[in-house]
Amino acid sequence: MPHKVTTVGLLDEVTATVRVAGACNAVKKTPDGRLVGDMFDGAGFTRGVKRKGFTLSGKRVLVVGSGGVGSAISASLAAEEISSITLFDSNTQSMEGLGNRLRQNYPNLEVTTGSNDPHGHNLVVNATPMGMNEGDPLPMDVSRIDPEAFVGEVVMKTEMTAFLSAAKARGCKVQVGSDMLFEQIPAYLEYFGFPTTTAENLRSTAQLSY
Questions:
Q1: Is the pTM of this model over 0.90?
Q2: Where are the strands (E) in 163-205, listed by range?
Q3: Among 87, 88, 105, 122, which is most buried by a count of CB atoms within 10 Å?
Q4: pLDDT digits over 157-176, tens only?
């Protein structure tokens, strides 16, 4: 930050994840001098979900929030061969822009925009600050989330947000916002060819303060 977006135009090669997200947060120089970029904000989310035993391939996904983090998560989810994705954001331009980039880069992916109804989705993601504290407006009608669905959050200012607590009360398996950060670090290390670690090891040695 704040150069994730402008960096993209300086690179020789980018991944589909970067093209969809419209931003890049990792650049490496190849032996022939070319600059190659990737984006790992969304990878942190998808790696965490998969580590918890949830298979993404073929799933129906809802992502509420089409800003920077929502775009990155949507891009990484598309790369995992989900069957469909529904996008919702109060900023229509941002939502439709993300939808169009997904369609261009993943033509076999079913992309729907304009609804935040979680019913019928296997994975539900809140990529907004909504539902952070008790009494806050929630990003969607939690009573419409299927109890068998997996629910993820991006907010890192508290461990269990009001939104996640409501989803867990319905019986949903959940992922907290900080998991995305801990899972992202090993992805960075692997990208640059460094010795890696695990999210569990990072969490055991880190000190979180909310």
A1: yes
A2: 173-175
A3: 87
A4: 888 999 999 999 999 999 99
